[in-house]
Records
---
Amino acid sequence: MIPPEKEAEVLRLHHAEHWKIGTIATQLGLHHTTVRRVLAQQGVEAARHSGRPSIADPFVPLIVETLAKYPRLTASRLFAMAHARGYRGSEDHFRAVVARHRPRPPAEAFVRLRTLPGEQAQVDWGHFGTLPIGQARRPLMAFVMVLSWSRRIFLRFYPGAAMGMFLRGHVDAFAAFGGVPRELRYDNLKSAVLERAGNAIRFHPTLLELAAWYRFAPHPCRPFRGNEKGRVERAIRYVRDSFFAARSFHDLDDLNAQADAWCDGIAADRRCPEDRTRTVRECFVEERTRLLPLPGDAFAAIERVAVSIGKTPYARFDGNDYSVPPAHVRRTLEVVATMDAVRLLAGDAVVATHARSWDRAQTVEDPAHVAALIASRPQAGTHRGVDRLTRAVPASAALLEAVAERGGNLGSTVARLLSLLDQEGAEALAAAVGEALAKGTPHVGAVRLILETARRARGAAPPMAVELPSDPRVRDLVVTPHALARYDLLRGTKETSDE
């Protein structure tokens, strides 16, 4: 769009000064297609193309006749048809000719939909970039629900748009509104509609469970009917411009806290489109009394996935591995996940419970599962130590290979490196291992010396072991302190004999 004064200047230069389209575009700093559009809107048909003859002119009847039968036929197919009939011009020029003669569909008018208070809400997802969590970059998705009458907005951000988060958004929105609208309108997203053929719709069964729990009617919008959920689409655009633009946040909890404050502040104090004399907050007070009451308990917003356990006792879910008891290998378990926890079920029995990780490529373990695995397979402890070491310090794999080539004891090397890992940390050990390999001294003594040298340079105290040995003979040993005066006597006797 260009300002009205510029449109007036285009028309004046064309009609009064008889400037050409290219001249007008150059002098006013406009694109030539913009100048053509302005002139065409005023009924200047000659402005669409020059009056010079074109090599495509003989093929115009073919274009018009074919497009009358097949309005959506592509220009590339028409170009092939014309080329077979003798057209030798460029394809770009032919596309421009086709665009001029392609029939335009008539503009469709939409009826503005009005609703009663408490009758309807509209729901949709908005994508707001990515969210870094550890090594992962999760999609930052905004769940938006808008009450159609008062325009009250509920906004909540999630690290994805899975079914569990979709359900969680509904539960949180109903709790924030203090009630449930009678009808919810959705786009044809997979979390709501699995299949659709015309008016035949197959809803997602979990959404139907949610609807039965809260007693609302799900209603998917018809395809290409933007007026049926225009309120939530405008709300997402409003969120982008008024809330998210140039906003900084520490983590997801901080972002959602800011979103709650914005929904209850700026967004609630704007004028209500249904009644410009009142704010959204004032209209929501009236609409809230018309909402359906909340049930006694909130719906269990969980995600259920069947997973197959392989040879190792770990279940892969959402890019991470969660440990299970070794007795459940080679079986199929069910993952039941919330925003905070992951449970693994064998039928109705819970076999494992873990805190949910939103990172990627992480191994989440229960020490009891690891102990059971080591007890069942004596060699598992050594393999597990190597696995832990190489995950924390990848360069240690090369050091272990060099130790093996020299005939060194791998078990002792792994144990000593794990001890250094616990004392110094992964970053310091990785630097020391890399330096030892670069110097051609791939053994634990060199790594330990490098760590001690770096510690002395920092002026840090040597690490002290805080854990007692697991052997009860050592752990429970009682040491009786003795008086040190005898050592003074020994020292005095030595001095006397020297004299």
---
Amino acid sequence: MRYRAFGRLGWQVSEVGYGMWGLAGWTGGDGQQIRDALRLAVELGCNFFDTALAYGEGVSERVLGELVREHPDRRLFIASKIPPKNRCWPSRRGFALAEVFPSDHIRSSVETSLANLGLASLDLIQFHVWEDDWADDPRWQQAVENLKREGLVRAVGVSVNRWEPWNVLRTLGTGLIDAVQVIYNIFDQAPEDELFPACRERRVAVIARVPFDEGSLTGTLTLDSRWPEGDWRNSYFVPENLKASVERAERLRPLVPAGSTMPELALRFILSNPDVATVIAGMRRPAHVRSNLAASDAGPLAADLLAQLRSHRWNRTPTEWSQ
């Protein structure tokens, strides 16, 4: 496992982190198997774990807290998220800060996350949705400054809405944001345009999420793919999106190097960008952990292959199904 500096904070974090959304909204997971995967990740050098209060309504945080207590000798970096009070993902233009992140909700959410995790302090707390129109509002600013002053959180971040990497640029100018979490992968290259340069200038850490485009970049989806009732992917891979995703993934197959896989290609594309501090991959099985963490050891992709992957950029805008 290779490690990178986490923005201006300087934390040395594993360049492949662990995304814990898989404990909620996805079927096919097994509680013991997930715990085994988490333990294996620590054993193999993963030290950055991203969860949220909304993942299983605290279940994900409690499982992660167990992991931390099992490894008192390891420095594990723990990131969680404050859910929008109106429970609307993503936020939308015109939403008022008072209905999404009022000060008392910010504090109570952090306190609940800490109780779930069994920790006295969080390394990173992130707003789970965001609107850049809130950038200069002193209410959220004072709320997070109070949390940091009291030692309840060490750093503050924003998880940017899907396909809106521009929707945090003004907020970065406040100097209060230590990290930005954004969708970045072979298809979603738009963060490179404005967001990454802004983060580089301010030494804000970049957390790349959704490295496999919710599954299409694993190369395992087909036009007949379906999931059990209640699985989030049914609402995301509606027919129009499933067809386009499968077709684009198939066009990538000839570029997968011999002896490699499409998931490894997807991760190494992201890790080839030095602006990324860590990429968080969902890993619900030990086999996922071994293969994903191995991408770090493989190193960056060759320049000519990266150039070819640039042509697979897919510029998308939010829709009613994209969430």
---
Amino acid sequence: MASPLSLFAVYAAIWVIITVAWWAFKAERFGLSGLPAYLMYRTTRLNKWIEAISRSRPIAWRTIWNVGIVTGIGLMTFAFYYLAKNLTYLFVKPQQAGPVQPIVPLPGLGVSFETFPYLVLALSVVVASHELSHGIASLVDRVPLKSTGVFFAHIVMGGFVEPDEEKLNQARNLTKLRVFAAGSFTNVVLGILCILLLVNFPATIALFYNHGGVSIGSVSDSLPAHSSGLQPGDVLVTINGTKVSSIADLRNYMSSVNPGQEIVVGTQRGNFPIKTGADPSNSSHALIGIAGLTDAYDPKMPFLSPDFPMILFNAGFWLINVLISVAFINMLPMFPFDGDKFLEVILNALGIKRIKEIRMTANAAAYALLLLNVGLSFFRFGFLRY
């Protein structure tokens, strides 16, 4: 496998070639800009497509974005609550605190090479859905778009929309709230949808896959499975001839097995006799000595890959984490995020005075909470690599 340094060198060389070509052919006249920092294609052609979407069901869209306003308030409130609670735990109950750390999207450093494609997919979906929602919310209330486009920023691919700032500033408060809340609201909805699909994952893929056993991720050196011949990557399908289709089946069967009892574990490679051991934390509970267990699936059609369900599950896991995290952070009243503008409009609508001072205080509080959580998380958990 190529080293991270060589992969980076190849990537940098390709990027240099693209930048030189962009400069030589004066590609800005075609709407391409941003190099060498990023590559952006700006156009008005996508405006008509977003306009068609916004005009299809204007009343329904306004209702959706009104729900988004309420959701935006909830996201902002909960983000403050969670960060304040977690910060308190980091000081007084560190064992109950959770890590609040940015993911460094560098393969081999902040994320593994296996995780990196899932992170890129999640970030791209977040950006594209977020910006599309801003565009639809703007056009539903007749705030025109200056341009739309796509971009590639080394790690993230996505789309963007540019509402007419002057028209948006002149719009009524309800319109502004809809526009500023739309992106995070859509991210949350997509995140919840992904949660529902993963919670019911067997049903999600039931049309194409059957449960096919339990995939073994690792075998402990000090427990019975190691001497039996079981290996990481084996798929456990039976115990003493009883079919095991899932982790739930495995747990149910093992609950009736006593420590020291001989069992025969059936896998795709054959049968392995094992004398079970006792769980150190519960002497009445029998252990085989396998870990990193995941459900395995058998494809119903010959052209389907048995590995695809795990790829789909990992993609869903990262989509959930990135979609939900971005939605909460984006609605915090921190410049330049949507939450800052959202708070300003709410204060205006309520007729509150000294808006500038309140915004500055809210910004300072939000940034302080976030940065303190991140800093103390590094001390408590170290640098997390995914």
---
Amino acid sequence: MSAHDAVTALRRFGLGARPGELARIAGDPRGFVLQSLTDPGRARIDDPALEPSHVVFAAAMEAQRRQRLARANPAAQDGGAIMRDGAGDGSAQRAGAAPSPSMPPAARGAEAAPGNKAATAAPAKAGEIRREAFVEEAGARFRHAATTDAAYLERLVMFWSNHFCVSANKGPVRGIAGAFEREAIRPHVLGTFTDMLLAVEKHPAMIVYLDNQVSVGPGSPAGTNRNLGLNENLAREILELHTLGVDGGYSQADVTNFARILTGWTVGNLVNARSEPGKFFFAPARHEPGEWAVHGKRYPARGLETGEAVLRDLALHPATARHIAKKLARHFVAEEPPPALVARLERTFLDTRGNLAALAKALAQSEEAWQVAPTKVLPPYDFLVAVLRGLSLEPRPPELLRLSAMLGEPLWRPPSPAGWPDADTTWAAPSALRERLRIAEVAARQADRLSDPRKVVDDLFGEAVGPATRQAVARAETREQGLELLIMSPDFQRR
């Protein structure tokens, strides 16, 4: 095998080499990539310090309830008119009522439950609870990315997390954006697209991010009584971004009908005894009755099952296969991927009924993926992780969060539901490269004082490094300058 293949394995299919890794995989770099797909458990982050999303969500609701009571009247008891039947305002969490017999057991026992953030962080504000959870999740993700031996698997997690993105810029989502990835993406990264799609669209982070908790069927009991209406955000983004794609042949009528079907998909609260706070909840009183057609197929009225049936059909549609194949090839290989590669991935998706492990394997076994020259600029997050791995630096989550934001890619805060773009022009602006140089200077100072930049080049790239990079590093006047030149070289910046 060539040195080029080993570098491709660690960069195109990974997050950059760690010291000694290039030599270790040199005998079978393609086998090393495929080995990442043999154990889906390596995609998980099992950190006991990380709370489930519903615990953080419920804790924030409880904090808001306490704040409202304190502002109104410390002795007041907030009535049960708030957050009934999974309803919510635009922020997804109005304050709940004070504990009462009508509350679900999880909410009634919050103050006594050990380890429950609603109890242990009772004096904290909702924003503080969410901020703490966000930083903890980010730290776990950075540490996992910097140390994993299954970097291809982590890259797949990152791809799907961006495909099904949520944004922590929306207040209630902030505390559970990381848990969304842990709970809805990582367990399914080598499963089926259908299972991942169902997990994603039912997760409270997605429900709240796309405002489905405020969507009410006009003909439902809640809509009739309260003069509430549809919100089409979730239905539209599922069709346009998550499944069929913008050219997938759906119409505005499909969006509206699908939105009707998804009414009642909401999040449990502190008041409704039929729901568990912070978890997905189907509220029949908010669901639009009737039979509706989506993308040429009519779906009978079966409540929650109707929405699930639409998602299962969308997951296996040929337009979805085409959309996913193009996006996957563009992300891993080139902005304009080889048509033969896209066609092979599309066929694999259809033949295996959306088996994501088979899709990832087909990509890794495609000659095109190993032959195309490295032209894609590393996104900011990937750049930071590559520096951590290459120089064996200890992840410092608060600083890494600051740097990723400064470079233009704040973690779990994409600019829109479409996620972060794959176009090289997104990350190659002169101002962004200047910021990368500043980071390279700091990283070079923090690196092992005994490290020889020339040996680092050999360790991370071997014979595959470009002659200009090797020469520039060799001629550097200081150790720090040599490392800076390596980090800023095209070899390091592109994959």
